[in-house]
Amino acid sequence: MTAVRLASDRGQTLPIYIWLTGILLFVAFAFFAFAQAASARNGAQSAADAAALAAAQDARDELMDQLGGAIGQDDNWLDWLDGGLNPAGTGAAAAAQELAAENDATLEGGVQQVVSSGYPGYRADIQTNYTVGDSIIPGTEGMQARAHAVAVIQPRCDFDLDADPKKSVELDCDGEIVNIDPEDFDPDDLPDASVLFSVHLA
Length: 202
What we know:
This protein is an alpha+beta fold. The chain has one domain (2-201). 42% of the residues lie in helices and 27% in strands. The protein is built from 3 helices and 7 strands; from the N terminus they run H-H-E-E-E-E-E-E-H-E. Helix 1 (2-70) runs antiparallel to helix 2 (92-102).
């Protein structure tokens, strides 16, 4: 009688074991699908961040060129140092697309000039060239990730608001002192762009 009962118990346990194993496998595949999607999303965000930063850095270089040309020629050149003027960013889209391609993604619709927290910036919208991949969730094999990012150009230098733009001006760029004399100025005298302007994600 006891042997018959044990055999019956094993017969009842086997279906439960198979059922639980199936549930665990489904949960594991579901987590894998979510991990695939998260990985694609993170890749898209990294590409968007890189593209937006590249656009803003290119515009910052253009800003430096225009500033160098304005000093000694334009009495409003100090406006460039407090964010009062926005560079055209003629090469921003190309720079953003190059960085997007390096991250296996595509820039959608170029870059948009924006203002964030009062600073000029650029927004990049990105779509990955790769897909999420096959998973237990239908449709993911053809699904691409999208993301966007905004990078801004922020002035780093303080100066006397009553300073005469026709005379020597002392700039305090986060502790680094820069002197600019419009009467004796060479564009090569300007420090690195990163000294005057920071570029960062908004």
